[in-house]
Amino acid sequence: MQHSTEPVRVAVVGAGKIAHDRHLPALPDMGDRVRVVALVDVDVARAAELAGRWDVPRSYGDLDAMLAAESPDLVTLCTPPAAHLDGVTTCLRAGAWVWCEKPPMLSLAELDAVAGREREGGPYVAFVFQHRFGSGATRLREQVRTGELGRPLVAVCHTLWYRDDAYYEVPWRGSWGTEGGGPTMSHGSHPMDLLLSVLGDWREVTAVTGTLDRPVETEDVAMAVVTFESGAMASVVNSVLSPRETSYLRFDFTDATVELQHLYGYGDADWTWTPAPHATDRDLLGGHPTVELPSGHAAQLRSLLDSFDRRERPLVSGRQGRETMELVTGIYRSAATGRSVARADLVPGSPHYDRFGGELLTAGGAR
């Protein structure tokens, strides 16, 4: 597609690890499509240091001051989760599009409040769920759309990661009020988003959570069974207690099994297609030539810039940005109540709508 003749003016808000490791490296990959104009952090010295390291021309200690001085087209928001609502709202009010790190917000209520600030044609807010943007996922979704693999029946979505006690020494981690949840929210939401992008709308979830070993208020492990409108069923496990780390997704269709195993990002080599014994066209099932696009921030950012050029809602915003958070909410509500939760029941005024964790729960055991 044809891109804007003028580069998109981008500001990065937050000078922590995610900005340094993911966002700032992804921006140069966009070439002359973007120009990074400013970096913001409440720690002025840290903002200046990181700006100097990445050749960002100006740094600020205040978001409002930066927006007034720079008028960026797009803000990448890399602050801790509890600051997302104010940060996104402030940027949208100033007319800037926003690309917000996960977890998007601390509740469905906050997500819906932010949606009310968007306008037709922009500005919009999109959320960082970069795993749905790799070429392997794109190929699989097309095969599902055409019915090439048959009907979806069974899926597995296991995020088995390891985070030690030192990881939770960062003050905002492990708390309902500042992080929004445990591995279901902060780690497993990426693979869960990819699961939903392939299988579509979910209908009901039954879950348990536990705080087995980490010094946190939230869960450190969760297990759920999810049923989809298609009739397919999925097993979902999210853990920060697993020394051999892996992110594993498996999709069993009537005519093939498709698997993805990686850790924090995948390429085409991480996918496998296995035809069912009765499948006759084995080349078709696994052999779609594509230009490889690894999953990652750069892949999603490129898509976001395309949407900006067209002034249309970007992927993983609006309804798409909400669906994974609905599943997170359903898992927490089911675990807290001991009952299955229907997606249709996650409406304003319902339990856990205003807070992913609902009422504060006693740490130290299954919920």
Which features characterize this protein?
single chain; 367 residues; alpha/beta; Rossmann fold; Dihydrodipicolinate Reductase, domain 2; 2 domains; eight-stranded mixed beta sheet; six-stranded parallel beta sheet; 14 strands; globular; GFO_IDH_MocA-like_dom; NAD(P)-bd_dom_sf; nucleotide binding; Gfo/Idh/MocA_Oxidoreductase
The total strand number stands at 14
Instruction: Name the strands of the widest sheet in spatial order.
Output: 13-12-11-7-10-9-8-14
CATH class category label of the largest domain: Alpha Beta
Mean pLDDT: 93
Q: Which bin fits the share of residues in helices?
A: 25-40%
Note the main sheet.
8 strands, mixed
Distance between the termini: 50 Å
Low-confidence stretches: 360-367
Number of helices: 11
**Helix-and-strand structural type:** alpha/beta
Strand proportion, as a percent range, falls in 15-25%
* Count of discrete domains: 2
Shape: globular
CATH architectural grouping of the largest domain: 2-Layer Sandwich
Per the CATH scheme, the topology name of the largest domain is Dihydrodipicolinate Reductase, domain 2
* Element order: H for helix, E for strand: EHEHEHEHEHEHEHHEEEEEEHHHE
- The CATH superfamily of the largest domain turns out to be Dihydrodipicolinate Reductase, domain 2
Query: Nearest-angstrom radius of gyration?
Result: 20 Å
